[in-house]
């Protein structure tokens, strides 16, 4: 993995989540669940609530502060230990914004226009999108490369941004004749790297979908979870014995993948148990495993949220630790680029 791709770089894992709305089962299975699992392996783990990404679209200031805390609570409730990992919010470490500016001079405008997330979020009226929304991937590259991170666990939807991060690192190293930034490996693994909407199997489950029934929120109670699963769109056929049988059944495939990821099984293992059965039997079993896995997380999140001052303290300490890693890397970047540094 990264050790062989990036010899000479300390193995380091970085990932981030936007506090732009309540977090969903997609965020949990695609990202949060794996963040905790990666702790304590050989790599250092650095996890960030990316509040400066969130403001690329309008956020109510007080709501943003609360959601930043809530995202931090979700990290910890999912098992991220702020003693083992560095946990902080992006805006408290100025190296991210500074390095993003430097990368704005490396990245090309055409690269940004090609990003599908920009096209989706800017919509038809892209002239009216914030400049930050267009430049967003340069900030994301800065998040990662400010720590010279060698690996980034994310869901499938972030793959294109990670390719752009690799392009920026490659161009920087080439333009300045250095080996300063690693070529970061995406870690897109598990049965649920792309959790789909419960109402439409062709759309990603997203916190910004207008229909609350399309997603399971990490703050949903057991009744809401069971009800959303009961109402999830499916088809009338019985379940097949292997995943090949799900090829043209996106809704069914999504529910099987969710079950597999929650139960730490493979989709084929799940199907071998439910082969020949209909959704009348499968959905209650899925609701049971979802409630069993998510309820403790929801409860822990609420506990953390009872003490916002403690969350703020944890994020502040994390930001100091993060800055201690990022500042020397940023300084070296400035030196490479010829920016004069003479302050004591
Ligand atoms: P964001 O905040 O949209 O999502 C956070 C993480 O959750 C994953 N995810 C999903 N995985 C599976 N199925 C889904 N339906 C689903 N929805 C979301 C995302 O892939 C992501 O891993 N640009 C990033 C945040 C970011 C970042 C970074 C990530 C900023 N800087 C540096 C990694 C490294 C974003 O908008 O994620």
From TrEMBL:
L-tryptophan binds at residue 143. Belongs to the class-I aminoacyl-tRNA synthetase family. Its main location: cytoplasm. GO terms for molecular function: tryptophan-tRNA ligase activity. Its EC number is 6.1.1.2. It is found in: Cytoplasm. Gene3D superfamilies: HUPs, Tyrosyl-Transfer RNA Synthetase. This is Tryptophan--tRNA ligase. A motif ('KMSKS' region) lies at residues 204-208. It catalyses: tRNA(Trp) + L-tryptophan + ATP = L-tryptophyl-tRNA(Trp) + AMP + diphosphate + H(+).
């Amino acid at each position: 993995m990264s050790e062989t791709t990036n010899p000479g770089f300390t193995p380091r894992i970085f990932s981030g989540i936007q506090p732009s709305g309540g977090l969903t089962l997609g965020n949990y299975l695609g990202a949060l669940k794996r963040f905790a699992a990666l702790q304590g392996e050989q790599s250092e783990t650095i996890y960030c609530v990316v509040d400066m990404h969130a403001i690329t679209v309008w956020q109510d200031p007080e709501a943003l502060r609360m959601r930043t805390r809530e995202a931090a609570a979700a990290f910890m409730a999912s098992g991220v230990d702020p003693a083992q990992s560095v946990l902080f919010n992006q805006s408290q470490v100025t190296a991210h914004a500074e390095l993003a500016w430097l990368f704005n001079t490396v990245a090309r405008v055409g690269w940004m226009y090609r990003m599908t997330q920009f096209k989706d979020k800017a919509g038809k009226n892209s002239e009216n999108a914030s400049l930050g929304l267009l430049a967003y991937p340069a900030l994301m590259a800065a998040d990662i490369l400010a720590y010279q991170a060698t690996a980034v666990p994310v869901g499938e939807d972030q793959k294109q941004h990670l390719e752009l991060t690799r392009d920026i690192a490659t161009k920087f190293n080439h333009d300045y004749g250095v080996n300063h930034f690693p070529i970061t490996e995406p870690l897109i693994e598990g049965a649920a790297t792309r959790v789909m909407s419960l109402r439409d199997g062709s759309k990603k489950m997203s916190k910004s979908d207008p229909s609350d029934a399309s997603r399971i929120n990490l703050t949903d109670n057991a009744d809401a979870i069971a009800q959303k699963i009961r109402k999830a769109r499916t088809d009338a056929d019985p379940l097949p014995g292997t995943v090949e049988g799900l090829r043209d059944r996106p809704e069914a495939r999504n529910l099987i993948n969710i079950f597999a990821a929650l139960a730490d099984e493979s989709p084929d293992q799940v199907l071998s148990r439910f082969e020949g059965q209909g959704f009348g039997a499968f959905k209650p079993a899925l609701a049971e495993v979802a409630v069993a896995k998510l309820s403790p997380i929801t409860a822990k999140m609420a506990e953390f949220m009872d003490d916002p001052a403690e969350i703020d303290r944890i994020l502040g300490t994390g930001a100091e630790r993060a800055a201690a890693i990022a500042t020397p890397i940023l300084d070296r970047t400035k030196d490479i680029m010829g920016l004069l540094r003479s302050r004591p």
